[in-house]
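Standup notes, structure subgroup. Blocker cleared on the FE2/S2 (inorganic) cluster input:
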Amino acid sequence: MSTITIQKVNFKVFRFNNIDDYLPYYESYTLDVTSEDVVLDILNKIKWEHDGSFSYRRSCRHGICGACAIKVNGRSTLACKESMSTMIEYFGTDLTIEPLSTKRAIKDLIIDKSDFWEKHESVKPYVNAKIDETPSCENLISPEDADALNEADLCIQCGSCHYACPVTEINDDFFGPAAFVSAYRFEADVRDEDSDRLIAVNDEKQGVWDCVKCFECAEVCPKDINPIEKITSLHQMAFQRGVAKNNVATRHAVGFKDSIVRNGVLDEGGLVLYSEGPSIIKHIPVALKMFKHGKIVPPWAIVKSDNIGEIKILAQSSSTAKF
Ligand code: SF4
Ligand code: SF4
Ligand code: FES
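Run returned:
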């Protein structure tokens, strides 16, 4: 029989009311936390026992709706699913609780989600096909073709991944992971005939190439959809369908593969040179520092992998990164 333990934890909680407050502030609480508590229990404790005006979203309490997504010490999490023991194990007993996106805060942890729907609409989230207006039967697809959607159709548009994304927070043009999941869902649909959607999600600033692969979106998704996997598939589709443009982001993908094929390991310096071309000059101060600390080596000093033959076959058979 497991014993319930109790310990004191210091919380700094983001507070803001966009009607009364000019700036947000942080309220401190020291609370008893049991080994059975999830983060949502702490939010409830603050609201029910300390300040009834404290506001946050929650709905299912079973980790399936995404309503309760917040940040704990900068890490995106579903409050009703994340155990406090895990948070204490990761971060210790000083925890900061914030909304997913502080700049969109309306009331404490509640954020304005309106731009989510604008981005969602931008990728034309529907099957675009010429079909008979009065069909005599459903327009079915085979089980194999349905499998190609890779569960992207399970997205409930909760927006958790969108606001957990650090790129969405700083780049207002970026479509965001949820829009990319929708774009993938319809690009992978054999009935779809739209040729503009993939072009749109490949544009610089708004498209998939600005994702920094931090996996925050995958961490917070209540449906385990793994948006980053769909983003990678959109990268591949862009090369396969000839949509990828020759720019710094796509050259990065091509250069990465070429480096692995050539050496079996990544040539960091060569990759930057390949991706950036002449504008590499701006990176020289950083490159010198990296060189000094052994983070990059000159091309002639790269030690090739012992399994280079095998790696070459694997990289060439699996990669789509080419122009
Ligand atoms: S992996 Fe990409 S899309 Fe997902 S949260 Fe990070 S930057 Fe955003
Ligand atoms: S991918 Fe997941 S987190 Fe993102 S909107 Fe869909 S269900 Fe929510
Ligand atoms: S309340 Fe639904 S996921 Fe937490």
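Discussed briefly. The chain has 14 helices and seven strands.
Next: hand off to the docking folks.
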